[in-house]
Here is the input.
Amino acid sequence: MSFSTLVRRVEIELERRIDAGVESEGRLSQAMRYAVFNGGKRLRPLLVYACGETLGLTLERLDAPACAVELIHCYSLVHDDLPAMDDDDLRRGRPTAHLAFDEATAILAGDALQALAFQILAQDGRSDRERAAGCNMISELASACGVSGMAGGQARDLELEHKTPDQATVETMFRMKTGALIRAAVMMPTALAPDLPPAQVQALREFGEDIGLAFQIRDDLLDVEGNTEIIGKQAGADQALGKANWPALFGIEGARRRIMELDARARASLERIEGDTSGLRRLADRLLHRAA
Here is the structure.
């Protein structure tokens, strides 16, 4: 199935699940929809579907984790853009949520999107086995969100402003801040395949970790080399804030080489996995060589 068809599928599922989970049409629900339906590329849901394809899972089983991971991603962007964090005014070519609404509403919209993501996973499945898988997916996603994932990574990002950390420190922060959620998108479908051999689970985890890190390095390259109108956010924002930007610290050519190294490692991990990994391979290309 084409990526465009899968993007449309998850958009429909997001609309349905947000409508079911939001009781009013007030300012908060408007802000939630503004944060979700804003032209996002839906790369993380695509990873869920692509991994599920490799494992032979039906699309219906994958809809809930696909929606959950995208809602978490959208919530994280709303909070990252806040004045207390990165203080961005442009996201995907539109005013950030706290400017389109107000700061308090943006905070609450992010909170509500995060809660809805876990509600979707908790309510998915009818059998004991399906509910157990839901619990495992909740654990995986919660780990990606918390102190060892996005929240901890964002805290480290703020701590490293106007400093010159070494490569290992920067990459650890990247793996937490950005890579953890990408890894979770790859790993959640494995909960729906409990008989998957541990070696293949580990190979998928390593694939997710490597493309997650490479994704953030590519994002940093776009901040340095990209055009605001194309990337949909303010180019050069990292430099203005004194962020630990990979190519700014270690060189543009070094960043490109590091992405290639991580890409090669990720592809080697896929060689250890049984099943059709063509979707994961094509998606890795899209993530690591994107122009926006």
